[in-house]
Design a protein that fits this description.
By secondary structure, the protein is an all-alpha fold. The protein contains 13 helices and two strands, in the order αββαααααααααααα.
């Protein structure tokens, strides 16, 4: 009974904060301007303080549930990313400056949480891998915040899968605020995450991945994580390859992400969202089944198989000129 009361309190606080932020955004014009960039697909100005609401919801949940110490690795670097995200949403920071703060946040996450991935027996290499992993996940999250409900739905499915697979009860308090926000973000969206929200969610996902690797063992944890978060990671990897081959800045935005192609084909964002949802849930189920296998050795092979399959898909897409770079 106590858990349900805590969840209700967190739900109510998150909902109240989001409603207040929605009014605040409208009053002070803290919005994403429709068609400000060619990549924008919404037709109205939309409030962009969703990430702030999620952060306060998570903070509330951790304080009232007694899990504050467990999630300092999220809250400390998360507060920095939310702050930088708000500045970026207002003044459009240069990509390289955002990257610097993402790296700082990654170091803070590793230092505070002590979730250093055990890739090798050399501490320095493990730290470098950990920082690169976190920064990559943050950017995969940012890239997959392209249409109504996309990132919030993907993250809810991811965190729910982790909760079921690894059984971390406090993950419930990470899911609830994003789930509440999803009601504001589903088409037609009333509020966006903004860079503050997309980077915060990326940090949460990265933290979860490191927690899985430290709990289940590195190779098994990496495999489980790679399956459940496969779609955003694939989109990030292919974007880097695509832009590199086109001799574009890898940080430059374009309209060639997977969701752009699907939106072009299916026209309606809800249809595309259901495709993402079905695929993500399916991958979560597969990850759960594989999580029942003991040991680590087999998962080294499984990780290699994922890498090979991804490489084959990218090569085929390049040869067929699918998902080519478009800026218009």
């Amino acid at each position: 009974m106590k858990v349900f009361i805590l969840i209700f309190i967190q739900f109510a606080v998150t909902l109240t904060v989001l409603l207040l932020l929605e009014k605040f955004s409208a009053m002070f014009n803290v919005v994403d301007i429709a068609f400000k960039e060619e990549r924008k697909i919404h037709r109205e100005n939309i409030p962009i303080l969703g990430g702030v609401g999620i952060f306060f919801g998570i903070l509330t949940g951790m304080l009232i549930s007694g899990n504050f110490d467990k999630t300092l690795g999220i809250l400390v670097p998360g507060s920095l990313l939310v702050f930088i995200g708000l500045i970026d949403d207002s003044f459009n920071l240069k990509p390289i400056l955002k990257l610097v703060f993402q790296i700082i946040s990654a170091v803070l996450l590793l230092f505070v949480s002590e979730l250093i991935p055990k890739l090798t027996g050399i501490s320095g290499i493990n730290w470098v891998f950990g920082v690169l992993f976190i920064v990559a996940i943050i950017n995969s999250s940012n890239m997959n915040d392209g249409f109504d409900g996309q990132l919030s739905m993907l993250s809810v499915i991811f965190l729910s899968s982790v909760l079921i697979i690894v059984k971390f009860p406090f993950f419930t308090y990470l899911i609830i605020p994003i789930l509440v926000f999803l009601f504001f973000n589903i088409s037609p969206a009333r509020m966006f995450l903004g860079d503050a929200g997309s980077m915060l969610i990326g940090l949460i996902v990265a933290y979860s991945g490191l927690l899985i690797m430290n709990t289940e063992g590195f190779w098994k944890g990496l495999f489980i994580f790679s399956l459940v978060w496969y779609i955003p990671m694939f989109d990030l990897l292919f974007a880097v390859v695509r832009r590199s081959l086109s001799k574009q800045n890898i940080f430059s935005a374009d309209k060639s992400h997977l969701h752009h192609v699907l939106l072009s084909k299916y026209k309606e964002s809800m249809k595309v969202l259901w495709l993402y949802t079905t695929a993500s849930v399916s991958l979560g189920v597969i990850a759960f089944l594989f999580s029942l296998f003991p040991g680590q050795t087999a998962f080294v092979i499984f990780d290699l198989i994922i890498l090979i399959i991804t490489a084959i898909i990218i090569i085929l897409l390049i040869k067929k000129n699918i998902l080519k770079v478009t800026n218009e």
